[in-house]
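Morning run. Coffee first, then this:
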Amino acid sequence: RLGLEESRSRICKALGKTRENSSFLFTGADMSNLSVQKAEFKAMAVYALVTAGVESNAVRMAEDEGRFYEPGTINVVVMTNMKLSARARTRAIISATEAKTAALQDLDVRSAASPLRHQATGTGTDEILVVEGRGLPIDNTGVHCKMGELIARSVYAGVREAVYRQNGIADRRSVFRRMQERHLDLHGLLSR
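And here it is:
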């Protein structure tokens, strides 16, 4: 209710930080629906913290027109115990984005703008933060690498759980729910 600028100012003041050295993720999703996922392999550990709301502004990139801003948002915070290079942090964003999109497609989340034609690839307000740890140096987080696999697995599971918690969308849902998501009604179909 305060707006983004006033919220940023108050949070920075409360934490004793400046805007220049702070990053924030804002969401319209209910924080009690936060999904926390962990993936491990030997000494490597990745946590994904995910909130997701997809009913009002899910979009298909390269298909849907960007016309407005509404709450919804898939926010992902990826935290690893390994020290990631700049290259690895950048690549982690790509791995996390691909995992998010795979989760939405496996759930058959529909674009809010074109639900009959398109599955969603995200929302118009998605954000990802990658937080490195202090462990061994890692230079690559692509999916061919173990760290990339762990990032993808934790984000994929987190998106699926967060979408279910926020919007009640699971891969096993009735045909009637799927029709509703596509803005189809049985009466209208039968009358044709």
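The two ends are 45 Å apart (CA to CA). Good start to the day.
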